[in-house]
């Protein structure tokens, strides 16, 4: 035989259900009454309106956070700032060598302009003269001699020669980047694992 407390709990639950049904019945009666009034107005030609309230929830997308971009022209400063980067990328874009580093959600880049790829050389009696317009800076001449960028990266330089006049030649230079060697260089210089260095670009 069930206890009195168990019986009371069941009766309380039944009371709650009955009250909920009564409230539901009242709402149905009200809706039914409104529909009847609308139908009657339609039959008599009276204008009627049914108001529909739609609740919408706006979800505002948070704006994408753009990482600040800092461009370095000195390798020593870039190297000091970008030690232990999360990711490093490199590319040649146009006539420039770019290195990108991701540090604490910030993107830093180093860029270095490559020397011009065409040199005009004039052969004289006891020497050769290089067109100065092709060498904008003394570093360009040093690069041609050593094949080394200011950041310390060594490139392979190949050239082809075209005779312009009897004593005038045009040398066209071709720079070869070996991705594996660039990855090794950047891994060593920036103190990051080689698998974190990729050929490409880090967007900002």
Give a short summary of the structure.
This protein has 204 residues and is of the alpha+beta class.
What are the main properties of this structure?
204 residues, 9 strands, 27% strand, alpha+beta, elongated, 2 domains, four-stranded antiparallel sheet, 4 helices, five-stranded mixed sheet
Helical coverage, percent range: 25-40%
Our Rg estimate from Cα atoms comes to: 39 Å
Distance between the termini: 75 Å
Question: Strand-residue fraction?
Answer: 25-35%
Tally the helices: what do you get?
4
Structural class by helix and strand composition: alpha+beta
- The ordered string of helix (H) and strand (E) elements is HEHEEEEEHEEHE
Low-confidence parts lasting 5 or more residues at pLDDT below 50?
Answer: none
- What is the mean pLDDT? 77
Taken from the alpha-carbon principal axes, the silhouette is elongated
- Give the total of beta strands: 9
Count of all domains? 2
Strand order of the largest sheet: 1-4-3-2-9
The biggest beta sheet reads:
5 strands, mixed
3D architecture notes:
- The radius of gyration is 39 Å and the shape is elongated.
- The two termini are 75 Å apart.
- The protein has two domains: 1-55; 69-199, no CATH class.
- The longest helix has 41 residues, at 4-44.
- The chain has four helices and nine strands; from the N terminus they run αβαβββββαββαβ.
- The chain has helices at 4-44, 75-81, 138-146, 179-190; strands at residues 69-72, 87-93, 96-103, 106-113, 118-123, 128-130, 156-163, 168-176, 197-199.
- With 204 residues, the chain is of the alpha+beta class.
């Amino acid at each position: 035989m069930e206890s009195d407390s168990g019986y009371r709990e069941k009766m309380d639950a039944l009371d709650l259900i009955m009250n909920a049904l009564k409230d539901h019945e009242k709402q149905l009666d009200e809706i039914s009454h409104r529909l009847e009034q609308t139908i009657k107005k339609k039959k008599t030609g009276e204008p009627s309106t049914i108001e529909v309230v739609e609740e919408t929830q706006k979800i505002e997308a948070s704006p994408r956070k753009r990482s600040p971009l800092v461009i370095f022209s000195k390798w020593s400063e870039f190297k000091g700032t970008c030690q232990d980067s999360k990711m490093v990328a490199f590319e040649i874009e146009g006539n420039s060598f770019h290195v990108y580093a991701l540090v604490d959600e910030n993107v830093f880049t180093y860029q270095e302009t490559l020397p011009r790829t065409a040199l005009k050389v004039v052969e004289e009696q006891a020497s050769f003269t290089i067109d100065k317009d092709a060498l904008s800076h003394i570093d360009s001449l040093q690069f041609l001699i050593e094949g080394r960028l200011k950041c310390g990266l060594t490139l392979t330089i190949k050239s082809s020669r075209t005779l312009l006049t009897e004593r005038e030649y045009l040398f066209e230079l071709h720079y070869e980047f070996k991705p594996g060697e660039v990855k090794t260089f950047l891994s060593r210089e920036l103190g990051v694992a080689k698998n974190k260095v990729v050929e490409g670009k880090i967007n900002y």
